[in-house]
Amino acid sequence: MVKKKFYWKTVFKNISQSKGRFFSIFMIIFLGAAVFSGLRNTPYTMASSVDTYLNNHNYADLTYIATLGFSDEDVAKVRSLKGVKKVVPCYQFDALFSHKDGKSGATVYSQDHYDQNMLDRPEIVKGRYPKKEDECIIDVNLGKYNYKIGHTIELSNDNGTKTYKIVGIVNDPRYISNVDRGTNTLGDGTNSGFVEVLNDGARELGLNQKVAQLRNNDHLYTSLLVDVEGAQKYDLFSSDYDDMIETVNTRIKSTLSEEISDQYDQLTG
Description:
This protein is α+β, with helices and mostly antiparallel strands. The chain folds into 2 domains: 60-86 and 222-269, no CATH class; 92-206, no CATH class. It has helices spanning 2-17, 19-56, 72-79, 199-206, 209-215, 239-268, and strands at residues 62-70, 84-90, 92-99, 102-111, 123-127, 135-139, 152-157, 160-171, 191-198, 221-228. A 6-stranded mixed beta barrel has the order 3-4-9-6-8-7. Strands 1-10-2 form a 3-stranded antiparallel sheet. The longest helix has 38 residues, at 19-56. It is elongated, with a radius of gyration of 27 Å. 26% of the residues are buried.
């Protein structure tokens, strides 16, 4: 007992005689522990933030793109499958837009209408959603080309050229980072941003007329967005979410594969 009291007396005496060094060491240890704790929790915090953001913007669980397009019958069959909560037929295609330095690539997305309940709901930074087929909303990144609300933007690809009036500037849940906008099949292969329009305004550029004639159907879509029943209750980065999505994905791919096989037989038979 005496030895223990003597030990602590010596410790406190040494601290009192070198307070500066003691507090320096204490702060180094404290800051090191704090930084380590922060780094250890950062991935979970970031994942939780992204999960919340995507859920708030109704991020589509599955997205399908078809070269030969999706018909209304295809959409109806997918919609009837077990586990499918919502199916949104739309267009997704590459285009070029003009600016003072030349032309750059953009990915164009469309939906039948824009509201708070839509899948992949864009986040309005300024302006509003499009209401007419000649209106569009643009990526906030395209501001570097001096595009503003009220301006027009001309989009072109192998299917033609169309001009849209800009009514809104947005962020999109499909793009978490502002650094990369992917690639483009036109121009020099780089993608500068995205443009979003209504389905009626996208069909002219989004639907290849040769495909429409081949299938004898001018009301085809190039993309399907799918919302899976019950998926929102799981963390997007969890294995439970992956398992649920994969189960529904297998059903959808099986159904679409049958449709593609039937289309092939009809076109080659």
